[in-house]
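Chapter review: from sequence to fold.
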Amino acid sequence: KNSARSNNSLDMIAILLLLAVSQSSLPASSAMSITSTGGGGKTIINHLLQRTSLTQSYYALRHGQSLANVAKIISSDPKISTVQHGLSNVGKDQARSAGESFAEEYRRSSSANEEDCCRGVAIFSSDFARARETASIFADALDRSRIPLYTGDIVLERRLRERYFGELNGGPDTRYQEVWDVDIEDADHNEFGVESANSVLERTTKLITEIDNQMQSTAGGGSEEEGSCWKCVLVAHGDVLQIMQTGYLKHSDASRHRSLQHLETATIRELSLVS
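The token string follows.
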């Protein structure tokens, strides 16, 4: 009996090791694409569905024009995109302009003594080069206007990475449409080896709830003059931000993400949670 139990234990260890190896071999954006389950074992796709409000203000900022945009290629592999395909000169100017415009609006609202006066700006960014550079330039514009920055720097967040496009990576960006056409029919599909749209919805909306919970728990440290909330800017990618917006609209899945207004490069959009 002891021998049988020992053999069973060894078999189980071998299975677990194989699972770990297969998981680690995936691109990081796919490796974290496992959906969560609720207390009743039901799969959670949109973590904002049960939320009636959020304690912080949120904004989506798409990265500026990148070298991949100029080359008209799909750049979604973390091994490549975290070190290559940063911003073009046009993209850098776009990011700077976005930061200056946001700083001006921040100062205007603060000087008007609005009730929602915040403590400063929190910048969470994908660690892909094009998003990271956009976030840095955007933050510099805020710093020049002496706007407080959460943690004093940008916060890199892997859950804001570009959706992984599998075998289409490195190919022409005209092939995005092939994936989007299937998204409409099945938001869980992995055609061409892509990360599913629902996976992106799950990881981004879970991030929002975690940020909101964390910042709410630390909000008590501010004075009444400082305010109690932060304006949170999420710097990411077109597909990711389109999909994340379906979460704010309380969609049950991400199948309709392409029906939303397109987010151009270096465009910032306030996100509002529907009641």
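Two observations follow directly from the output. Strands lie at 36-37, 43-44, 57-62, 120-125, 155-156, 230-236, 268-271. The radius of gyration is 20 Å.
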